[in-house]
Amino acid sequence: TIGPALYESEFDQQSPLDRDRVSSLLAAILSHDPAALVVDLDLSPTGPARQNSLAQSRLDDLLVGIVTTRHIPVVLTVPFPVATEQAFQTKSHWMQKLCARGVAFGYSEIATTQGVVLDVDPRIPTLPTIAMWAIRARQAPKDTTDAPCSLLAGGAEAAAFLSINYSFVQAWHPTELAHQVPLRSDLLEHPRRHSHVIATQNDILTMPQLASKVVFVGGTYDPADQFVTAYGQVSGVFVHAASLDVFQGKVARARRSEE
């Protein structure tokens, strides 16, 4: 995770994050040969400035190369919703371009019950759900028709989820409690065992072994991205990682019961 200190020293406390510095971070992670990369950061284009455009292109090429050359699944968060038509077109076309090259997208929204994250629903195409599908199938299986990339295949006009008028709660409010899974994971009970906070450049060089692991990349610097769970308050990226852990455990148990 990108900690507050690195956010101040390397990213100058500015969002969106500097694209070249993000590329350097992802390249360092890739040197460890992870099984998959899940990014809980909005990496979409942000402005017309030439410098930003070139840095964005380099980041996009890196992301596509991870999928097409390294054959490592990449799941990105759907961009934050926008108000103007120009921004809508820019972000939807960017998503279409990456989707066409094999990069997947998932929603970053996290559902709560009276302010607490208690359950997760593997039917909703969030970051951990899309990551689970990508890891299991290496391609979109039949039950991903509502995934962002599948919707975008019908054209940019299908990207209603990019509009500030879109209500994620109304679109995906769970109605069948039987499909929800309790969010119980060691990743939440003992987050330090499963995470590496990057506070300085040296922390990038001393990352733990990540080979064959699903790596979630996110930030712990945003006070708005904090969620209360049964184990205490954590950043959203920990909730997403724990959700994948729960989903994979459920799949493993289901397979054992079938044998």
Task: Please sum up the structure shown.
This protein is α/β, with parallel strands linked by helices and 259 residues long. The chain contains 10 helices and 9 strands.
Kindly report the spatial arrangement of strands forming the biggest sheet: 3-2-1-7
- Quote the beta fraction: 5-15%
Q: In angstroms, what separates the terminal alpha carbons?
A: 38 Å
Which stretches are poorly predicted, pLDDT < 50 over at least 5 residues?
A: 139-143, 251-259
- Relative helix content: 40-55%
The major beta sheet can be summarized as: 4 strands, parallel
SSE ordering: HHEHEHEEEHHHEHHEEEH
Q: How would you sum up the global shape?
A: globular
The structural class is alpha/beta
Beta-strand segment tally: 9
* Total helical elements: 10
| Gyration radius over CA | 18 Å
Give the overall pLDDT as a whole number: 85
Verbal overview:
The chain is of the alpha/beta class and 259 residues long. It is built from ten helices and nine strands. Strands 3-2-1-7 form a four-stranded parallel beta sheet, sandwiched between helices. Strands 4-8-9 form a three-stranded mixed beta sheet. α2 packs parallel to α3 and α5 packs across α10 (236-258). The chain starts with a helix and ends with a helix. The relative contact order is 0.18. The model is unreliable at 139-143 and 251-259 (pLDDT under 50).
